[in-house]
Design brief:
Length: 429
């Protein structure tokens, strides 16, 4: 960790929720989704801040903030429990004439404009809490000051196929942004916004106040604030980042990012002592493998008990794989139990799930997409929600979705075809 840089205030936008990660984000915000076994996604942004010497942090929450608030706490795992600065988690609230929840990323910051105004800093670094990467923010901050920019946008090169999910940036030879398009259907380039912005504080406040008075605005940085700043000739520059950066905003992207950690030389190095990723982690005993256990190319967290076979998978703390069970190409979250002689193949299983013995999760082919989320669950990955209890002998196909809290009584049979969904029935008040 570096010495504190008190010239910069940092805002982390951690309100993301909804259906981006299917049932994984149904009961929690995306930044608090587990990743790489023992971490949460927001750990990477928080760790980047403290490793960059940034200790004055405001975390803005909205969607289901309790899990995130419990995880961050007073910030001690990141050395953010400080008398001056540190981390403050701001819960969502309704306020006065604005009415309703935050309408966009810019509106989320605007609602805290009084607190931002009082922070004794010249620049404001705005970050997303739902990206996975290791980045030193200081070079970007230095370039921002040298150029005397109103705002500097962090950008990265990406394939044209993937770039349509992001803001597209076009620059001149000096790095000045000449066009900003938010998620165009047909991208004209592959230089995409990382959702990382350094604002001159006065420019930020002026633009937020102006945007708040525009009834036609969606009050979003990518859709409104940044394109308008470019159009009006503000000093908008780019900073090109060349390291690893991943937006795990879909089930497939999330699965890919976890599986990539199992390569011989992964792009994201979690073992470097030069840039530690910190997290809040409860004490558990070491993982244990029985005499019959076999583990191949997998990440096994502390507290796991492996009595069966684990192949090319990521296991969070406290997972139990019983005798004869096989876990393959899967992500298994905290305290889940895989029963005897069961098979879990290409699945993401949330925490505190119980899979009964002699079951199969992920059988058949991948050709049938999920009936509810055909664009998200269509590559063979089956997802099971928190605290589900699956009966012994059940057979579940690929691209299936099993909702949180589902138990044996919610299954009409012990065989679920590819692409089907089982969730708790809605209760009408």
């Amino acid at each position: 960790m570096r010495r504190p840089n008190e010239e910069v205030a940092t805002i982390i936008l951690a309100g993301g929720g909804g259906d981006r990660l299917s049932i994984l984000s149904e009961q929690r915000a995306v930044p608090s989704v587990p990743f790489a076994g023992k971490y949460r996604i927001i750990d990477f942004t928080l760790s980047n801040c403290v490793n960059s010497g940034l200790y004055n942090i405001l975390v803005l929450t909205q969607y289901r903030p309790l899990s995130l608030r419990d995880h961050i706490g007073n910030g001690r795992p990141w050395d953010l429990d400080r008398l001056h600065g540190g981390v403050t988690v701001v819960s969502p609230y309704l306020r006065g004439k604005q009415g309703g929840w935050e309408r966009g990323t810019a509106d989320a910051v605007y609602r805290n404009i009084e607190q931002i105004t009082e922070i004794p800093a010249d620049n404001v670094l705005i970050l997303g809490g739902d990206h996975i990467y290791k980045m030193d923010y200081q070079p970007m901050l230095r370039l921002h000051r040298e150029r005397e920019a109103d705002v500097t946008i962090g950008v990265i090169q990406m394939s044209l196929e993937d770039s349509q999910r992001f803001g597209i940036v076009q620059t001149d030879e000096t790095g000045r942004v000449v066009q900003f398009q938010e998620k165009p259907e047909r991208p004209e380039g592959n230089l995409v916004s990382m959702g990382i912005y350094v604002f001159n504080k006065e420019a930020l406040i002026d633009r937020l106040l102006e945007d708040s008075e525009n009834p036609q605005s969606r009050h979003d940085f990518g859709r409104n604030i940044l394109p308008k700043m470019v159009e009006r000739g503000d000093r908008v520059y780019s900073y090109t980042y060349k390291g690893y950066w991943q937006d795990a905003g879909t089930v497939q992207a999330y699965w890919n990012a976890n599986m990539a950690l199992l390569e011989d030389q992964p792009e994201l190095d979690l073992y470097s002592r030069d840039w530690v990723i910190y997290t809040r982690s409860e004490e558990r005993p070491p993982a244990i493998l029985s005499a019959e256990a076999k583990v191949e190319r997998s990440m096994i967290s502390h507290g796991c008990q492996i009595k069966g076979r684990v192949e090319h998978s990521v296991l969070s703390p406290g997972v139990v794989v019983e005798e004869g069970a096989v876990v393959r190409d899967s992500i298994i979250m905290l305290n889940t139990v895989i029963g005897k002689n069961s098979v879990v193949d290409r699945a993401i299983i949330d925490k505190n799930v119980t899979i009964g013995p002699d079951s199969i999760i992920g059988q058949g082919d991948s050709s049938t997409p999920n009936q509810d989320e055909p664009d998200n669950l269509m590559s063979g990955i089956t997802v099971i929600g928190k605290r589900a209890e699956l009966p012994a002998g059940i057979k579940i196909g690929r691209n299936c979705k099993i909702g949180p809290e589902v138990t044996a009584k919610h299954f009409s049979s012990l065989e679920l075809a590819e692409g089907e969904t089982v969730e708790l029935p809605e209760v009408n008040d």
